[in-house]
Amino acid sequence: MLLREVVDLIQAQVIWGAELLDTLRVPACFAADLMSEVLAFSAPDALLITGLTSVQSIQTANVADLPAILFVNDKKPGPQVMELARERGIPLLTTHLTMFAACGLLYEKGLRPGLKGK
Amino acid sequence: MSEEVLYSEKFTIRGNDYERGGEVAARIKSVMKELGIAPDITRRLAIANFEAEMNVIMYADEAVLEFSVLPEAVRVVLEDRGQGIPNIELAMQEGWSTATPEMRRRGFGAGLGLPNIKRNSDEFAIESAVGVGTTLRYLIRLG
Questions:
Q1: To probe the interface with A, which of B40, B47, B93 has the most A CB atoms within 10 Å?
Q2: Which residues of A touch B93 (CB under 8 A)?
Q3: Within a domain: residue B1?
Q4: DSSP string of B5-19?
Q5: Which of A72, B49, B97, B125 allows an S-S link to B25, with CB 3.0 to 4.6 Å?
């Protein structure tokens, strides 16, 4: 699914990376607030869905090859975190939806869990 | 016979430096990309390095991480100065943790770090002395 479709589907706000929406595809999702869990179980190229807005969410996406991050519950990271995302080329989205609702909508439209080794 | 090292670089990691947590893993990842190391190997080492780096930030005073590229493997030796681990067997169990709320707010401290490093490595060794520090060695074979 194109990142643009994710944005439209859940009415997300683009915090950074609008110019990448029409070129970046996410084949799957991984949702967690625990970054160790993301590092342990996510597949590369999955969209990271999280409520964690610290620098560690960006670093996790970077080391685990997750191309974009969707923050839930209307969360937005601070300027330092946004700057790091820009440096790493990782688009950031935010939605007012809860993690459960965001995942439910994306699942309904065909996105599946991005699990390592699957 | 001395081993052949194709590339080597040392990094210092400071305890409690949460804002920079992940910088060393990111730097090594970009070096591996530049060296043309396969993406799956690069990802595995980046994940192991990030967990190891966060462990230092959360639990140790300071550490030196040495990353080396050998003809048939990539290797990390991480030596920290800090409180050490009293019971390594317990620390290697998934879910066992002595984390503080700050660590958990950062998305870590769930007792997955060391098992995660081991899971991503082909060889893994840990030694620790209480009140002195911990040394980790892990290696991923190329190809």
A1: B47
A2: none
A3: no
A4: -SEEEEEEEETT-GG
A5: B49
Is residue B99 in some structural domain?
yes
**Contact yes or no for B108 and A33 at CB 8 A:** no
Determine, for residues A36 and B105 on separate chains, whether the beta-carbon distance falls below 8 Å: no
- pLDDT tens track for B3-14: 899 999 999 999
- What ipTM describes this predicted complex? 0.92
The answer to whether the CB of B25 falls within 8 A of the CB of B49 is: yes
Q: What is the pTM of this model?
A: 0.95
Tokens 């989205």 correspond to what residue? Answer: A93
Nearest to A36 among B18, B43, B51 (CB): B51
State the residue for tokens 């670093």: A59
